[in-house]
Each structure stands twice: as C-alpha cells, then as structure tokens.
Amino acid sequence: MLFIINYDLIRNVLAMAIINSLIVINLVQKVKESFHIKCSNICIFISLGISLVISTLFSLTFSNLSFIASAWSGLISFLGADFLYKILEGKLFKSLGDIKIEKVEESTK
C-alpha cells in the first residue's frame, strides 16, 4: 500500500502553528507577569495548556483545518513558542528570574 503525504495540509498546519506561537508567547508572558509565577515547571504546564486550547480554537476559527490538524497546530506551536521565547528572552520578554527579583523588591518596599 502506498502512502501519499499531504504537503498542503502540513504547510497549513505549520503556518497556523507559527501564528499561534506568537499569540501563545504573549499570553504566557502576561500570565507570568500577572500571577508572579515562581516555578518554571508550572510555567511549562501553563504554556502547554494555553497553547493547546488557544491555538486549537484559533486554528478552528480562522482556517479550514480539521480538529485533529488544529490540535497538531497547537502542539507544534507549544514547541515553537518555547523556542522563540528562549531566543527573545531578555530582549522583548522578561525572564522568570527578573519577575522573581521584581516581586522581592516590591515586597521589601
């Protein structure tokens, strides 16, 4: 049996994942700053949850991808958002350590 790869579907999933990664980065950053998250493990689970939910809903709403393809887009955007965040950390986004230091400084005032 011959399997044919649907390159158009892969291209569409990856395109949505790139867009979703940008959204997820900003949302996770806002959540980290708002709730002063101290533990990086919690931040990873928050990022995964936001990525899967928001990315899947965004892909379903603004593209013609199926639910399964949108879920793949959400998972790929989680991986891509983490990669982009590590590149931009300290340049555009505050690192988790900086947020911890700011919280300590605010509490000592």
In terms of topology, how is this protein built?
Layout: H1 7-35, H2 40-62, H3 67-88, H4 96-108
Helix pairs in contact: 1-2, 1-3, 2-3
Describe the structure.
The protein is mainly α. Helix content is 80%, strand content 0%. It is built from four helices and no strands. The chain is elongated and about 70 Å long. The termini are far apart.
Q: Helix amount, in percent?
A: over 70%
Cα-atom Rg, whole angstroms? 17 Å
Strand content of the residues, in percent?
under 5%
Instruction: Let me know the number of strands.
Output: 0
Q: Mind summarizing the main beta sheet?
A: none
Distance between the termini: 70 Å
**Shape, principal axes of CA atoms:** elongated
SS-derived structural category? mainly alpha
What order do the helices and strands follow? HHHH
Mean pLDDT score = 83
Counting DSSP H or I runs of 4 or more residues, the number of helices is 4
| Unreliable spans | none
